[in-house]
Design goal:
Elements: E1 10-12, E2 15-17, E3 24-28, E4 35-40, H1 44-62, H2 66-82, H3 84-95, H4 99-120, E5 126-128, E6 136-143, E7 147-150, H5 158-170, E8 174-177, H6 183-195, E9 203-205, H7 210-219, E10 225-229, H8 232-244, E11 249-252, E12 257-261, H9 267-279, E13 289-295, H10 299-311, H11 331-346, E14 350-353, E15 368-371, E16 388-394, H12 397-404, E17 412-416, H13 420-429, E18 434-437, E19 456-457, E20 470-477
Parallel strand pairs: 7-8, 7-10, 8-9, 10-11, 12-13, 12-17, 13-16, 15-16, 17-18
Antiparallel strand pairs: 1-2, 3-4, 5-6, 6-20, 11-19, 14-15
Helix pairs in contact: 2-4, 2-5, 2-6, 3-4, 3-6, 4-5, 9-10
The protein binds nicotinamide-adenine-dinucleotide.
């Protein structure tokens, strides 16, 4: 199926700026390896213009009533739904994921705009009884200011939308730097906002060399808040820069999600749901289950079901309607997965299925399941961020919880059990920001999204999501 790839721009002060006179980088279709576009890189003057636009846009937007801001956000949701099919095809073309996942992602992005449209209208202040009868004390919530938001390439629709929708609902303006690998989807979201009537400069979208852009934006006195989704090392770097500039930052970083499959679990459901969760997005999801810990009495039974589910997945070009698992999105991740598998093998691991590249053009890797992986193997410590799972046995709930909580990550964790007592205990004791018990689908706009420990801090969705874009002021008046 041939799909035309959109032309790429910077979006600054309501203007769509082409690549003439600017450096650029290529955008590849990971299913074929073909160059499909060139994304223009912002020059220093472009970044300064985006900052000035965000500064001016903030003054307009903060004074726009929440009721009217909500209309623009709801209009954006409606346009995203209207254009969902076309945007999903762009997303699959540049990112690789199966078209049905891309369609689901665009629908979720629309949901985030609608959710935050309403949350923006529920930003209440309060009156606090005073100690003196003539004093009136009011607490206000105000938009924190222009935001620098950095989104990666694995969820090109949901991640920018979660950041933009919450910030705009609060009354903030935004300079967004999406992943350079998947620019068209972010631009389609900006286009929907523009068409829905967002005033000029309230959202600006720039691309370029990430380290240059992030430093420039975070150091600028215009920016009052930073939000980043990506890897732990880059999160540490940006947190240090934001700390130096005394700006709050929300960080949604990597994970190494454990799954605890207890002997009393519904093994068929567990195998099906864990395989679907693991290989969704070709494993390039921070919530992706990685260490699958199975209680000894059902270890072999679960393993054979899980391997069968994995082998049944149809890998292919995401645009093929039959495809369930697309290619890996970029060559960096293929090399990383190959290195983790080679290391595990050298440490004595058994490859139960997969284990290598698929011999066809593009960046395809066989969905891979490893067992007998010793604790010192790299894959037991490093986030694979790809189609690679490890299955290990455990004896007791204490042993399983200790292994689950062993790593510095704390993003997602899962458990499968029919016992309420076990479910309550693992819910309480797993160290993770998001816990799925007997299911693995957790990206929903009305729920908070975020991790603990090295997986970052701050929540992006739910009622919590808007709070990080607000500051608190009290007014005490006689
Ligand atoms: P990477 O560490 O090079 O980059 C991660 C993301 O950060 C990318 O989107 C990149 O464009 C951006 N980035 C890099 N340096 C930056 C900087 N100085 N300022 C602003 N943004 C910057 O890794 P990668 O190869 O792109 O992705 C793989 C790793 O990233 C994975 O191991 C995973 O841990 C992590 N990741 C996590 C998520 C998530 O949802 N939490 C998403 C994508 C990637």
């Amino acid at each position: 199926m041939s799909v035309q790839y959109d032309e790429l721009f910077l979006f600054i002060e309501g203007e769509w700026i082409g690549g003439a006179g600017r450096d650029n980088s290529t955008v590849l279709n990971p299913a074929t390896g073909a160059v499909i576009g060139r994304v223009p890189h912002a020059r220093r003057e472009d970044l300064d213009r985006a900052l000035e636009a965000a500064d001016r846009g903030f003054e307009v937007w903060r004074r726009t009533p929440a009721y009217d801001r909500a209309k623009v956000l709801r209009g954006t949701a409606a346009l995203l739904r209207e254009r969902a099919e076309a945007i999903a095809r762009q997303l699959t073309l540049e990112q690789g994921k199966a078209l049905h996942e891309a369609q689901y992602e665009v629908a979720s992005a629309a949901d985030y705009f609608e959710w935050f449209a309403e949350e923006g209208r529920r930003v209440y202040g309060r009156t606090v009884p005073s100690r003196r009868p003539e004093v009136h004390q009011r607490v206000h919530k105000e938009p924190i200011g222009p935001v620098a938001a950095f989104a990666p390439w694995n969820f090109p629709a949901i991640t920018p939308s979660r950041k933009i929708a919450a910030a705009l609902a609060a009354g903030c303006s935004v300079v967004l730097k999406p992943g350079e690998e998947c620019p068209a989807t972010a631009l389609a979201i900006a286009r929907a906002l523009d068409d829905a009537g967002l005033p000029r400069g309230v959202l600006n979208v720039v691309f370029g060399l990430p380290e240059l852009i992030s430093r420039h934006l975070i150091e600028s006195p215009v920016i009052r808040k930073v939000s980043f989704t990506g890897s732990v090392p880059v999160g540490r770097l940006l947190a240090a820069q934001a700390g130096q500039a005394l700006k709050p930052i929300t960080l949604e970083l990597g994970g190494h999600a454990p799954v605890l499959v207890f002997a009393d679990a519904d093994l068929d459901a567990a195998a099906r749901l864990v395989a679907a969760g693991k290989f969704r997005g070709t494993g390039q999801i921070c919530l992706s289950p990685t260490r699958i810990l199975v209680q000894r009495p059902v270890y072999e039974a679960f393993l054979s079901k899980f391997v069968a589910e994995t082998q049944a997945l149809k890998v292919g070009d995401g645009l093929d309607p039959e495809t369930q698992v697309g290619p890996i999105s970029n060559a960096r991740r293929v090399e990383a997965i190959a290195a983790l598998v080679a290391d595990a093998r050298a440490c004595g691991a058994t490859v139960r299925t997969g284990g290598g590249r698929i011999d066809r053009p593009g960046l395809f890797w066989q969905p891979t399941v490893l067992t007998d992986v010793p604790a010192h193997a790299r894959v037991m410590h490093e986030e694979p961020f790809g189609p690679l799972a490890v299955v290990c046995p455990f004896e007791t709930i204490d042993e399983a919880l200790a292994e689950a909580n062993r790593l510095p990550y704390g993003l997602a964790a899962y458990a499968f059990t029919e016992s309420t007592r076990t479910a309550v205990r693992v819910g309480n004791e797993l160290e993770a920001g998001m816990i799925g018990i007997n299911h693995a689908q957790m990206i929903v706009c009305e729920l908070p999204f975020g991790g603990i420990k090295d997986s970052g801090y701050g929540s992006e969705g739910g009622a919590e999501g808007i709070q990080s874009y607000l500051s608190t002021k009290f007014i005490s008046q006689i």
